[in-house]
Amino acid sequence: MAAPTIIVVEDENSLRSDMVEYLGNCGFDAVGARDGAELDRVLSQRTASVIILDVNLPDEDGFKIAARLRDGHGVGIIMVTARGTTVDRVVGLEIGADAYLVKPVELRELEAQVKSLLRRLNERTMDPPQAPCAPAPAADGAGDLGDEARWTLDPTEWSLTSPGGVRIGLTSMEMKLTSLLAGQARKPATRDQISQALYNRRWNPEDRSIDTVVGRLRHKVEAAIGGTAPLKSVHGVGYVFSAPVRILGGVA
Asked: 221: which of 4, 135, 140, 229 fits an S-S bond (Cβ 3.0–4.6 Å)?
C-alpha cells in the first residue's frame, strides 16, 4: 500500500525541510511547498492525504487556502503557525482545519497529530453499509425510541451516521456542535449554549460564527445523504437536531 502523501506548506525553508525530512523518515510520502501557488501545482500532480499549513504565507494566507481546500477536497488539514491567539484558533477551526498547532511545535507531536488525523480520515472514507445500521441496544435506563429512525454519533471517531448507514466525518467544531445538539434530546439549544460549547464564551448577537458552523454542517450532511438534514433553526432560540440520535454509550 502506498504511503500517505503529506504536503507541508511553509515559506521558511529550513523549517519546511525539517518537517518534510522528519515525516519522510516516519514513512510518509512528504513533500514541501513554499506558498499556495506551489501547493496547487503539487495537488495537480498528486492526491494528498494531509496538508500541514502555515498561516503567514507570502501570496495567499493559510486561512484562505484552508477555506478553498475544505470546499473542494476531502483532505485533512493541520494548521501549524505562530498565530496562537484564541481568535486565530477559532477562525482556523471554523474554516475547517482538523487541528491547530502553535509554533514552535515538537516534530513528534506533529507526527502524532498526522497519524491521529489519518485514522479519522480512514473512518470517514470507509464504504457505507448497504443496509441500514441495526440499532444498538439502549443503555440501561435510556428508554426506547421505538421504530423511529435514529442517527448515531461516535465521539471517538468524530463521525455521524445516518439511519440509512451513511457515515459522515466531522471536524472538531462540527463534533462539538453535534454533541451538544444530540445531548439536548431534540430540544433546542440556545445560541449562548452553542457559543459556550464551541468557543467557551457568551454569545454576541453581532457574531455570525455559529451560523457559519451550522451552515457548513448542514451542507455536509445534506450532500452526504442526498436529502434534508434534521438540523433546524428555532426562531428566537437557536438550533435543534430534530431527529433522535444515539450517542455511542447511550441514547439522546
From this structure: 229
C-alpha cell recorded at residue 41: 501545482
Mean pLDDT of the chain: 82
What's the rounded Cα separation, in Å, for the pair 134 and 132? 6
Cα–Cα dist 114/90, whole Å: 20
Alpha helices, DSSP H, located in 128-208: 172-183, 191-199
* Dihedral (CA of 77, 81, 84, 87) sign: negative
Query: CA quadruple 59, 60, 61, 62: dihedral positive or negative?
Result: negative
Above 70 in pLDDT, residue 175?
yes
Residue 165: strand, helix, or coil = coil
Cell numbers for 22: 522528519
The percent of residues in the chain predicted with pLDDT above 70, rounded, is 86
At 72, list the grid cell.
Answer: 473542494
pLDDT at 141 over 70: no
Give the rounded distance of the alpha carbon of 45 from its chain centre: 25
Distance, in Å, from the CA atom of 66 to the CA atom of 174, rounded to the nearest integer, reads 16
Residues counted in the chain: 252
pLDDT of residue 90: 78
Q: In DSSP terms, which residues pair with 238 in a beta bridge?
A: 190, 234
Beta bridge partners of 50: 6, 76
pLDDT in tens, 186-244: 888 998 899 888 888 888 777 778 888 888 888 889 888 888 889 888 877 889 998 99
